[in-house]
Amino acid sequence: MFDRLKTQPADKILALMAEFRADPRADKIDLGVGVYKDATGLTPVMRAVKAAEKRLWEEETSKTYTGLAGDPAFSAALGALVLGDSVEAERIAAVATPGGTGAVRQGFELVRLASPGATVWVSDPTWPNHLSILAYLGVRMRPYRYFDAESRGVDASAMLSDLAQTQPGDVVLLHGCCHNPTGANLTLPEWQAVADLLARTGALPMIDIAYQGFGDGLDADAAGVRLLAARLPEVLVAASCSKNFGIYRERTGALFALGDPGRRGLTQGTLAFLNRQNYSFPPDHGARLVTMILTDPDLRADWEAELDEVRRGMLTLREALAAELQRRTGSDRFGFLAQHRGMFSRLGATPDQVERLKTEHGIYMVGDSRLNIAGLNAATVPVLARAIVATGI
User: Fold this and answer.
1) Element counts in the chain: helices (H) and strands (E)
2) Residue 12 appears among annotated catalytic residues
3) Cα(1)–Cα(13) distance, rounded to whole angstroms?
4) How do 153-154 and 147-148 pair as beta strands?
5) C-alpha closest to that of 79 among 59, 100, 95
6) Catalytic: which of 69, 93, 94, 210?
7) By C-alpha distance, which of 293, 232, 276, 194 is closest to 83?
8) Is 121 a catalytic residue?
9) 220 CB-near residues (< 8 Å, 6+ apart)
């Protein structure tokens, strides 16, 4: 049987990670992998997470299963963080998932089950795993214009023009904040325009919010999600705790399905059914830590303070890189780096230039020139700027 298997496409980011590890140069710089790192290159365990883990170790008395949907307290706590008071609890069906990727996958599974002929509209560009999962599930997809390669910002008019073609039963996949891979985000008026358009066309928005707190703050980063949740009759939200809680390996996320309160029971049962078919009971350790942090005033205050330090640190790196490039080039053409939010920006380099950055300077980034700002520190900002200029980007 196994001899009939076909080689699957390699994940380019994972391949880049392996190549970086094998590179013997001591001064190499990893700007490819999408993981937050502090100035020392470490992805730290947050203080509140450490404190919650210690308390959990002392207080936990059982490792038995939670429900198929996970602990309701987790869904309630994370739902409040993402949705605020934008939607009544009676409209929310929710399940815990193995990370944000699991939430995205279960969202697509729900779409396929509810509307087998649906077309999922995805931003051009988007996180490659969105496309991979949709292709694997056999769900029809279409791109919509999003990123303006000249301005390095959102081409809102082109986006709205494309999405005007959506129909009832279609799904529009949106990034809640800190767009991956571009770092270019919708403004609140642009979110409002999207909401108005979807209200007319009847398409359902599915929002992937993986970086809440990494952009302009917890509430500002969720403003678009909350606007759509309050305005539209049905919304899907896939949320991740990997980045803002720093618990990547705990695989902690949730899928929220907002709809008519009269159909909440049916939707909740369907989500639990999908969990059962995929992985049965979701992981609980990370979810329990998140619940403890979000419901304990002292732990939450410390978490929010450290998360804001992380956010401001990335903004400082963005501003430093933009300023250094302006100094070296005498041009403000890299000013977009200071305007983008989150870990990522697209530099605008060609694949050949990205390859030169790697081979000549030991600087690793994804082939489309997506760089992880969090992979930099004060010492490596001028190193990267010098390499960018030397490569002619």
Assistant:
1) 15, 13
2) no
3) 30
4) antiparallel
5) 95
6) 210
7) 232
8) no
9) none
Give the model confidence (pLDDT) of 314-363 as tens digits: 999 999 999 999 999 999 999 999 999 999 999 999 999 999 999 999 99
What domains lie within the chain, and their CATH numbers? 11-45+309-388 (3.90.1150.10), 65-295 (3.40.640.10)
Specify the pTM.
0.96
For 21-79, give the secondary structure using H, E and C.
HHCCCCCCEECCCCCCCCCCCCCCCCHHHHHHHHHHHHHCCCCCCCCCCCCHHHHHHHH
Q: Which one of the listed residues 155, 162, 170, 208 is annotated catalytic?
A: 208
DSSP state of 275: H
28 has catalytic annotation: no
- 188-228 pLDDT, tens digit each: 999 999 999 999 999 999 999 999 999 999 999 999 999 99
Query: And the tokens for 276?
Result: 């059962």
Q: Name the active-site residue from 52, 96, 103, 127.
A: 127
In this structure, are residues 364 and 28 in contact, taking their beta carbons and an 8 Å threshold?
A: yes
Return all residues near 211 (Cβ < 8 A) that are at least 6 apart: 176, 177, 178, 180, 221, 240, 243, 244, 342, 343
Annotated active-site residue 208? The verdict is yes
